[in-house]
Task: structure prediction
Amino acid sequence: MATPLKGVIAAIATPVDAAGEPDLPRYLKLARHLLDNGCDALNILGTTGEATSFSLAQRQRVMTALKEAGLPMGRLMVGTGAASISDAEDLTRHAAKLGFAGALIIPPFYYKGISNAGMMRFFERLVSATAAQPIPLYLYHFPALSGVPYAPSLVAELIGAFGPIIAGLKDSSGDMEYARTVARAHPGFAVFPSNEATLAEARSGLFAGCISATANLNSAWCARGFHQGDDAALATAVSIRKMFDGKVLISGVKATLAHIHKDPAYAVPLPPMVTCTPAEQADYAAQYDRFAAG
Result:
């Protein structure tokens, strides 16, 4: 089994070309930049990576490109959840074959009101499909988008049934009491809230770290806050996060990436997202530069 993931993890954005295909040269450049500038690991093809807007083949192509480019697979988690159990099986097997350190599983998200028994059936298939080459599975709790929560009772059932293969949980609910409840109930189970502000609490060991969209932009400050106890740096990271309060996060992150890397191609999302207007891009750039200057 892979070494457990922990620390500052960016939910990396996925650049796209004019045809709407993953722009692999830009993607690999961004991945290397983040790993060299404060990120302990990367979450590939999550929500910020627009995974559900790509086809199965496109997602597999991104995954394969990381391996072929020689990136450190032990520092990469990849989203392999899908509404279709067959797609989830295919993606998760592909991740295991390539050597990813973990697979992040959003629940099957079309049908709502799914029972614990239904979710157990889903995971029985998924664990069985990867039995020949196991990969740590991380639960992706984002009920605002998926509509299907990983209730604490379900988390306990999954851990009880499948053991350490259920390695952790990314909590994008924003409900810190939920995150604390799950973490305290299962010592050694890696819980990752999605907001940089929790890194101060993570230093105590309750949480394994943080998986954040805005770590695309503030990873160096996050790393200083988490690993060095630099509260001023962490405050800067949190301020950059707050730039997007009430805004469309994916488009805003991509617009700011375009500014940071001086490359407008980074600003373009896939449909149904839209590119930020020039005025919005200028506002994000000005705010980022102000925080970055200290």
Q: What stands out?
A: The longest strand covers residues 166-171. The CA atoms of residues 68 and 288 lie 33 Å apart. The chain has a mean pLDDT of 97. Strands lie at 7-11, 41-44, 76-79, 102-105, 137-141, 166-171, 190-193, 209-212.
